[in-house]
Amino acid sequence: MLQEFAPKLQASKPIGDTVTGAERRIHRRFDLALPMLVRVRTQTAQVVEASTKDISARGLYFSLQGDFELGTQLECQVTLPPELCQGNAIQVKCTGRIVRVERGEDESIGVAATIEDYEFVKAF
């Protein structure tokens, strides 16, 4: 779905390997701040509002507050706005795993997660 809108979106510059400088990403990553809900599959399973910082067909990066561990499973619901979806907002429900956690100076953390499975649901 995101590939359809590639000409309309600003792709972020590739991030190279720190040793070789080689790009490891397969899918283009887009700098998009999209509203999302995140539910980390833990004992509490709390739903938290967040916003993407970038997204690709197989991963996303967002920031929020809390304490999360690598490998933790999560569920996300990302809202694609009407201007990207032919006039209708679309919800993308996805599941994935946390693959990187970046702790900030404040209590917020940056989370990189894979998208292992997703489905598109028309928003009401």
Structure description:
With 124 residues, the protein is mainly β. The chain has a single domain, classed as Thrombin, subunit H (Beta Barrel), CATH 2.40.10.220. The protein has strands at residues 35-40, 47-55, 59-65, 73-80, 90-103, 108-114, 117-122. The protein has a six-stranded antiparallel beta barrel with strand order 1-2-3-6-5-4. Residues 1-22 have low confidence and may be disordered.
Considering the chains and any ligands shown, give keywords for the structure:
7 strands, six-stranded antiparallel barrel, 124 residues, Thrombin, subunit H, mainly beta, single chain, disordered N terminus
CATH topology group: Thrombin, subunit H
Overall spatial form: globular
First and last CA, distance = 19 Å
Mean pLDDT: 80
Order of helices and strands: EEEEEEE
The unreliable regions are 1-22
Q: Name the CATH homologous superfamily.
A: predicted glycosyltransferase like domains
Helix content: under 10%
Task: From the alpha carbons, calculate the radius of gyration and give it in angstroms.
Answer: 15 Å
Structural class: mainly beta
> What is the CATH C level class, in words?
Mainly Beta
Query: Would you report the number of β strands?
Result: 7
Strand content: over 45%
Helix run count: 0
- Count of folded domains: 1
Element layout with pairings:
Layout: E1 35-40, E2 47-55, E3 59-65, E4 73-80, E5 90-103, E6 108-114, E7 117-122
Antiparallel strand pairs: 1-2, 1-4, 2-3, 3-6, 4-5, 5-6, 5-7
Question: Summarize this, please?
Answer:
Helix content is 0%, strand content 46%.
